[in-house]
Amino acid sequence: MCRKSICQSFIAFLQQSKFVQILENISLKAYNTFGIDVKAAHFAEARSLEELTALLSDARWKAMPVMFLGGGSNVLFTRDFAGLLIKNSIKGIHPIAEDDHYVFLKAYSGEIWHELVLHAIEQNLGGIENLSLIPGTVGAAPMQNIGAYGVELKGVFYCLEALNLQTLHVEIFEAEQCQFGYRESFFKKEGKGKYFILSVTLKLSKHPKFNTTYGAIQTTLDELGEKELSIRAISRAVVHIRNSKLPNPAVIGNAGSFFKNPEVSAEEYIALKNEFPNIPGYYLEDGKVKVPAGWMIEQCGWKGKRIGNTGSHKDQALVLVNYGDAQGDEIYALALEIQKSVQEKFDITISPEVNVI
């Protein structure tokens, strides 16, 4: 099947009015899950490719920075944004093609990721149930190569469409071109700032294989009394786990896991194990070992610790929170202190998963 042939309906599907309202000096508190009250000098919402290209073609914005915002769940604002912020509201989910084993499901980038997971479950399509309740939009998923509970996006990824911000032409990227890594992709490295992801097409299974070996999924299934294994049951277990471990941004500001889990060589892990016998680790296919950043942060005494209006959450050290009135630079200062203490104790650098603006 030609990947280009399943990605050709985008422009026709999205054509709408060119009129886009530009708002001035707008608070972004409601547009980021940390709840940081900074302002954007100019703010617009794009609901179609045509609206987006009309905005980007406008000469008014050539001399100022332009930023795109999805669900605001992976960003920490430390200052006002003195440019044009474009909220991505390009939505839609529909199948492109199918065969005896798979359905190729296209989702547009402004869709909420968990809504896509629920849609797939309703259609009995497997592959992303372990990624339930991950915050953010579909457009952010390939940028981060999101993953959880033994599953990564790259395992079901088929292709994506992205707007070249220089030429304003739509380009198609297959998996190899995306250069997926651990919470990494081409769009966070060489392609950073050069493309806007428009849609993602996933290859989902009509005959799903269940993955319950990672973390506490099987234990949670037993606790919930799930007698029959299914993608819906796995999703419910994952949602239960995430709700029990991670604070709701609607109640307390946060962006989920602030740091990525670092990867070390097997030799480094053995040395760490000799010094810290209880340190957990997960061996990867490439021979490296993933070490939980949350465990190391907790060992450094940060779990539940509050400094002013911010702190490390009481149930999950990996989550930095805004207790109500924190400024972005306060949260970033805390992150730097946590990085420093982990480096000093374990000689491991933990990197932010959140984009700091």
Task: Please describe what this structure looks like.
It is a single chain. The protein is an alpha+beta fold and 357 residues long. It is built from ten helices and 20 strands. The protein folds into three domains: 8-88, Uridine Diphospho-n-acetylenolpyruvylglucosamine Reductase, domain 2; 93-205, Uridine Diphospho-n-acetylenolpyruvylglucosamine Reductase, domain 3, CATH 3.30.465; 253-356, UDP-N-acetylenolpyruvoylglucosamine reductase, C-terminal domain (Uridine Diphospho-n-acetylenolpyruvylglucosamine Reductase, domain 1), CATH 3.90.78. Helices cover 25% and strands 25% of the residues. The chain has a five-stranded antiparallel sheet with strand order 6-7-12-10-11. A four-stranded mixed sheet has the order 1-2-5-3. Helix 6 (217-223) packs across helix 7 (231-245). The longest helix is centred in the C-terminal third of the chain and has 19 residues, at 328-346. Mean pLDDT is 89; it is low at 5-17.
Question: Keyphrases for this structure?
Answer:
single chain, Uridine Diphospho-n-acetylenolpyruvylglucosamine Reductase, domain 1, five-stranded antiparallel β-sheet, 357 residues, Uridine Diphospho-n-acetylenolpyruvylglucosamine Reductase, domain 2, Uridine Diphospho-n-acetylenolpyruvylglucosamine Reductase, domain 3, 10 helices, alpha+beta, 25% strand
Shape: globular
The succession of helices and strands, N to C, reads HEEHEEEEEHHEEEEHEHHEEHEEHEEEHE
Spatial sequence of strands, sheet with the most strands: 6-7-12-10-11
Quaternary status of these chains? single chain
Total number of helices: 10
CATH topology assignment of the largest domain: Uridine Diphospho-n-acetylenolpyruvylglucosamine Reductase, domain 3
